[in-house]
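Exam review. A common question shows you a sequence with its structure tokens and asks you to describe the fold in words. Practice with the pair below. Do the first one on your own.
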Amino acid sequence: MNQNNLKAKDLITTAVFTVVFALVVFVASMTLGMIPVGFPFLVSAIGLIGGIIWTYMRVKVPKPFTITIQCIVSGALFFILGTYWGTVVGCIVGGILADIITSVGKYKSFKLTTAGFAVFCLCVHFGSFLVVLVARDWYYEYCLSSGMTVEWMETFLNFLNWPVMLGTGVLSAVCAIVGMLIGKALLKKHFVKAGII
């Protein structure tokens, strides 16, 4: 039997940690979302904390399509929880790209796995905030209709500009790499056992 085939236990493991990952994202969103100038740093926090969970998932289920499945399910959970659609699209597109990048190393290369997660974070970041700059009026009305206050929106929109978005995008990728390195350090024994280098 091909060892790369997904088994029931692989899908269960993926589902469990996908929920954990989604909860981390949700908590980070709720926490930073209370501070207008902190919100653009959301994906940086996800990269730093979520990278540890992402690392563990890659060790436990280093098989094709698990990243794509994880990110589609995560995107669905985010949408159900009321997340803006651009973030959901960024999550799914980023997951597919991360799966492709990781597959180049046959799911055994830590460098490519890390690169995949960094790309995922970049996609989520730009999916979340690019529309704010290219369709500012629409985003303003959308957020107001979703329950955000005028004061929050004005502070956020006055803070977020192209340099801030690009800067926090770079920070998101850096935090993703750091999060993966922390995860690898915490799970060193598991990495050796899985043969991931």
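Now try the second one, then compare your answer with the model answer below.
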Amino acid sequence: MSDLLPLFPLPSTVLFPNVFLPLHIFEPRYRMMVADAIQGDRLIGMVLLRPGWERDYEGWPPVYPIGCSGLITHVERLADGRYNIVLRGLERFHVLKEDHGRSYRRATVEPLAERELAADDRAAIKLQRSKLEELLTPHESRSGIRHAQTADSNMPKIPSGMPDEDLVNALAQYLDLEPLEKQALLEQQNLRRRAESLVELLEMKLLIARTPGGVSTVAH
């Protein structure tokens, strides 16, 4: 990463490593951010805005300190100066200090390398993957909880051969979860904990959906 990473704060979007994120850039300050990134290392850091951001959106509303860097893999500059870009998530980071020297936000960040997985970790992740596949398989008895593919026609199908890490991160990003739930998943220290937390979250939503009067936030 560069010494100062451009930050793109959004109220409902969380990026995960090795997952793709399409974005439409229309605000002048973030058009400048994209233009500068394209001329540099093509990196942008995605961070989630904290609740109450509406009061100071034009300024520097607080963000959660853990985000994910993304590499611009595709860029389309429109005639009026807006951009359509695609980011590929790279690695998590911790915001250490923000710099306000430009119209858009930049920060000194500390990369957060995920712990190398031991053999027992990989076995545990495979178990959690099986649970995820079972939880997200459409069943009539599970009308209260659905895979994002059934709720969002834009959700790409995930190949069965996708590596465990990519599958867990893709589900964490693409499932219709609350932004704070996704942020909590991003902040997990390693893939095993992220997979376990995702299973626990979906099981809780399924339990709520089965309770009379319960509503699952995964389904529309």
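Model answer, second protein: The CA atoms of residues 158 and 183 lie 22 Å apart. Strands lie at 5-10, 20-25, 43-48, 66-77, 83-99, 105-112. Full marks require stating both points clearly.
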